[in-house]
Design goal:
The chain has nine helices and nine strands. It is of the alpha/beta class. Helix 1 links the parallel strand 2 and strand 3. Bound molecules: adenosine monophosphate.
């Protein structure tokens, strides 16, 4: 595996895994999928200043460069690319706006966040020109908006979704989990517990009843828990075929998000 700041001699077609570093087994699963698709796998590590409204969050974002190299190599990356801010954002760089969905859910709390995400991913795609780009379902709204952007601006790139990797407790792996206390980790487990219960529900009303259990929980500050239509990110109704519950909240002052596909509508004959 080469570790580079400037991307040269890329063998194409290639597969691409964009990250912000502090790699964990969730990122590794994306790299493994990329490796199945292509012999050349580029992993970028770029903590994108544009997508952090809160500059303290940017400063405190975990950075583990040596471990990133180890984990990327182990998972099968062939190039670990750490671009500079100047390379990604020359004065001529296009600033994109995420569509309407970018101002809902995560976009409400984190103003301009998704504009920053689609802007950086567009720039990364321009430079890497991959055949495949792999993104985690863990960030489901992000995945939705990147698919939209790619359809318009990079129709030749295949966006490949990857399932969420969880700890044995059910907690979705996240670079931010390192900031949770031991007690906070136990508290955070309520998110996946409730999501999995909701996924077994047969009706929307039952799903919502399960999700409501998140609001009265001590030490978990709920932001939202909703069931959406995967196709358009609108709130689901009884007729919605592909439903997904999405949850966000805070534990120990750390913002956590998670989501899960809900059972398909039962067709009774
Ligand atoms: P990040 O470094 O947090 O920007 O994430 C880089 C990529 O890894 C994104 O596509 C995320 O959705 C994905 N990712 C993060 N956590 C997980 C996880 N637990 N399971 C699968 N993919 C993940």
């Amino acid at each position: 595996m080469k570790v580079v700041e400037l991307l040269t001699d890329v063998k194409r077609p290639c597969a691409f895994v964009p990250t912000m570093g502090a790699l964990h087994a969730g990122h590794q699963s994306l790299i493994k999928i990329a490796r199945e698709l292509s012999d050349e796998v580029i992993v970028s590590v770029f903590v994108n200043p544009l997508q952090f409204e809160d500059k303290n969050d940017l400063i405190n974002y975990p950075r583990t460069p040596e471990r990133d190299e180890e984990l990327a190599r182990e998972a099968g990356a062939t190039i670990l690319w750490r671009p500079s801010v100047d390379q990604i954002y020359p004065p001529s760089a296009l600033q994109l706006k995420a569509g309407d969905v970018g101002t809902t859910f995560e976009g409400i709390r984190r103003h301009g966040h998704f504009d920053g995400v689609v802007t950086v991913v567009n720039r990364l795609f321009e430079i890497v020109q991959p055949k495949y780009a792999i993104f985690g379902e863990k960030d489901f709204q992000q995945l939705f908006l990147i698919k939209e952007m790619a359809q318009q601006l990079h129709p030749d790139i295949e966006i490949v979704p990857a399932p969420t990797i969880r700890e044995s407790s059910g907690l979705a792996l996240s670079s931010r989990n390192v900031r949770l206390s031991a007690h906070g980790r136990v508290v955070a487990d309520v998110i996946s517990r409730v999501l999995h219960k909701a996924a077994e529900a047969e009706s929307l009303i039952e799903m919502k009843r399960e999700l409501e259990k998140l609001s009265g929980h001590k030490d978990f500050i709920l932001d939202y828990a909703e069931v959406i239509d995967e196709k358009n990110f609108n709130l689901a109704d009884d007729e919605t075929e592909e439903k997904r519950a999405i949850v966000a909240g805070w534990v120990d002052g750390v913002r956590l998000i998670d989501n899960l596909a809900m059972a398909k509508k039962l067709v009774r004959v």
